[in-house]
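Let's sit down with a protein and look at its sequence and fold side by side. Go ahead whenever you are ready, and we will take it from there.
>
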Amino acid sequence: MKLRMDKLGKPKHDRLPEKLQDTMHKAVRLEWVTIGFVSVTIILVGIVAGQSQAMRSAWVEDMLSLVPPVAFLIASRIIRIAANRKQPYGYHRAIAIGHQAAAMALLIMGGLLVYESISALIKQEKPPIGVIVLFGHDIWMGWLMITIMAITAIPMVILGRMKLRLAKELHDKLLYADADMAKADWGTAAATIVGVLGIGLGFWWADSIAALVISVSIVKDGITNIKAAVSGLSDARATRYDNSAFHPLTYDAEKLARETGWVLQARARIRDQGHIFHTEMFVVPVSDYVPTLEETGHLRNQIEELDWKLQDTVVAVVEELDNQQVPPSDENQAESGTG
């Protein structure tokens, strides 16, 4: 996608705070490093893959591992576009869209690889691994395959761990998915090595089994990330960057609102826009009290000061809380006496 530089602005609500700009720049640099390293890996693995099903599966997985960093780099540009009348919530959802695109690529290609692996097992295909002459010596190609898989797996694990920390700071689920896949790359390398060694020992089925293990791993990554991406895009309750639990900011914001002197009840709807949250805080004032604009504005500012992700907050004063409009959560089920 081509973005005109004159359209890139600094909107009030949908930009990262200055303290996280350096973190974003680090993440962008790591993604470029990842793309460069994976590109070299694809070439090396493609050269030595031969007819090994496990090596071919590893090669395809390497190509798929380019999708998340490329999607992240594109999304990191799109989110800088200022909110406008056409996109009033800004463009941070580009992160979730990139997440879903990467997950779909993983699921589709993983499914195809599972089919190929099972077909190879049924047909009892026996992939030959030949010999290459290097410096006047005959060397079994399997040793080259094993060496390349072992060497290329280590940097990916390191890159994955580095990106995990940045994903947490940025609340970036696309970056987290990329980091989690890279961190687990050793599993693909190990399965491939076992499959190649199996062929060398005469176990023809070891190669297809290894390929099947790799393929199932790809499918699992695809399903896990599709669930997470769809949840965000469908305005489900905001969760942590790794989708391990509901995000505590919902509870924190509601607690702060309820502790405000003129508020009787409070309940929030918080949607995850990508990096930031859009918050709608519904408050019921104490009996016969009409809060001033200054009081509602102060409450809004207090909520936004809780965390940098709460940049876009609206406080709505209502007569009662409507359970259809703003359903109660487990934390505030007890206080939902009306509506």
Summary: The domain at 5-233 is CATH 1.20.1510.10 (Alpha-lytic protease prodomain-like). Confidence is low (pLDDT under 50) at residues 1-14, 332-339. The chain has ten helices and five strands.
